[in-house]
Description:
By secondary structure, this protein is of the alpha/beta class. It is 40% helix and 17% strand. The protein has one domain (2-135): Rossmann fold (3-Layer(aba) Sandwich), CATH 3.40.50. It starts with a strand and ends with a helix.
Amino acid sequence: xxxxxxxxxxxxxxxxxxxxxxxxxxxxxxxxxxxxxxxxxxxxxxxxxxxxxxxxxxxxxxxxxxxxxxxxxxxxxxxxxxxxxxxxxxxxxxxxxxxxxxxxxxxxxxxxxxxxxxxxxxxxxxxxxxxxxxxxx
Length: 137
């Protein structure tokens, strides 16, 4: 099974948006993909701007809570996507999965239009990732 972990520093914005879009893609495509999310330094709550812009897409993330990414999370992942952080501190030495870094600015404190732009970029990247997963590429 394919397991994708979305990781950012606070797990309160970018990785939460990516996970929500990935859940939608998994359902739309009928794929057997497990999804994980976490932060290297988890925040107390999801950013208000993120809740608002995801609501605009019909996706409710208000009940989600930031959590820490763990070595066992990474160990079980076949793909790890990082956004503004590194998994080096939690990556097992023998882990052989695929990693990619998405350069997406941190949404905290940004104007709502900037957060929308980040959301749209993440949505596009998640769709591209699922295209690759679906085709085995």
